[in-house]
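Anyone up for a design puzzle?
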């Protein structure tokens, strides 16, 4: 027999199983929802989308044929393909010259807001629940009051906000497209569009961030963002823009 006021052990087990299951679901959701914030700023002239063929000029430091520069060019070409653009078979006949630059800033220290949950210890207690226990001879549901024991547990009652110092780096990718015409006495060929994507954070692995930054430019190439905006990129989404960019890169490029 169970002590008065205490439910069968199965009720306690069921309560904890539900709690563990809920916690597991939250952890799984958190692990699947990893996103990277990218700040995007873009400008474009009217009818910028009419120019669809291009040739790339890489202005990033290092040897033009270095592995990193090749990776960056592949990522950008894939992003441009996402806007229906293609690399001109004959560079001289391309509509645009797309200038590519990317890199990472010097480290800087910032104040970053953090939160942590605040828990309160809740002692075990008994509560009364009205439950259906069957039906009477007329087919009506019969209810009965039952005592249910809730074990002692920790319960979240709020959040604590605080600031920490972090060393961060700006990873950036800059694309600018101008007419594929020689410079004249009045200056350079006209710029048609430009897009700048930047991600701030502790990470310093450019090979990881180039596909993410390229993915963030896709919806902004040839458009005017009308100022800075933040794009949330899910870098693990198998059907997202990062996966699309990586499809145009070899496995070695995306490690």
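Challenge accepted. My sequence:
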């Amino acid at each position: 027999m169970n002590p008065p006021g205490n439910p069968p052990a199965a009720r306690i087990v069921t309560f904890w199983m539900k709690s563990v299951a809920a916690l597991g679901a939250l952890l799984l959701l958190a692990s699947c929802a990893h996103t990277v914030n990218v700040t995007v700023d873009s400008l474009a002239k009217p009818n910028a989308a009419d120019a669809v063929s291009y040739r790339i000029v890489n202005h990033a430091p290092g040897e033009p044929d270095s592995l990193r520069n090749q990776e960056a060019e592949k990522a950008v070409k894939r992003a441009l393909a996402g806007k229906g653009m293609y690399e001109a078979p004959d560079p001289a006949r391309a509509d645009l010259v797309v200038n590519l630059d990317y890199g990472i800033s010097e480290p800087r220290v910032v104040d970053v807001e953090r939160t942590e949950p605040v828990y309160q210890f809740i002692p075990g207690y008994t509560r009364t629940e009205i439950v259906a226990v069957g039906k009477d001879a007329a087919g009506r549901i019969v209810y009965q009051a039952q005592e249910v024991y809730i074990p002692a547990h920790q319960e979240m009652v709020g959040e604590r906000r605080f600031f920490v110092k972090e060393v961060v780096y700006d990873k950036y990718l800059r694309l600018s497209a101008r007419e594929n015409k020689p410079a004249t006495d009045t200056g350079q060929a006209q710029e048609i569009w430009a897009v700048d994507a930047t991600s701030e954070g502790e990470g310093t692995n450019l090979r990881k961030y180039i596909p993410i930054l390229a993915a963030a430019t896709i919806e902004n190439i040839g458009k005017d963002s009308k100022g800075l905006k933040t794009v949330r990129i899910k870098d693990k989404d198998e059907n997202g823009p990062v996966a699309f960019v990586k499809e145009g890169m070899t496995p070695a490029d995306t490690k």
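A detail worth pointing out: The helical segments are 9-32, 67-81, 206-217, 241-247.
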